[in-house]
Design a protein that fits this description.
37% strand; 3 helices; two-stranded antiparallel ribbon; 118 residues; alpha+beta; 4-stranded mixed sheet
Length: 118
């Protein structure tokens, strides 16, 4: 299992280790809190470089040094402003990763893979 290590400012030996599953959960929850997002869409094909679970959860995260690139695959509500929802997801994912995990996000790519009609 891959992990993200954040160096604390307290002294040189202090570290915070965050499991990769936590990163996926933070991204997933941030996306699901945005109005218009109905759920996550499974990632078709490709290889999730972080862990297999994220692929099923609609999240792919690539971590290098102290930054991350995130791809989020979504199901959105029919009739919603997809552009606005996507922008909100980008903002919320980046904010959550920084505030909760302390990891800067270089990019959040949003893919609307499905539209849910009720």
């Amino acid at each position: 299992m891959k992990q993200f290590t954040a160096e604390a400012n307290l002294n040189r030996t202090d570290r915070v280790i965050v499991a990769s599953e936590v990163l996926v959960t933070v991204v997933r929850q941030a996306a699901l809190e945005v109005e218009g997002v109905i759920g996550m869409a499974p990632v078709a094909g490709g290889v999730n470089r972080l862990l297999r679970r994220g692929k099923a959860d609609g999240v792919i995260i690539e971590v290098s040094e102290h930054t991350a690139k995130v791809a989020v695959h979504l199901r959105v509500a029919a009739g919603c402003d997809m552009h606005g929802v996507s922008r909100s997801v980008q903002t919320e994912v980046a904010r959550s990763m920084q505030n909760i995990v302390g990891l800067d996000v270089a990019a959040v790519d949003v893919f609307v893979d499905d539209v849910a009609f009720h």
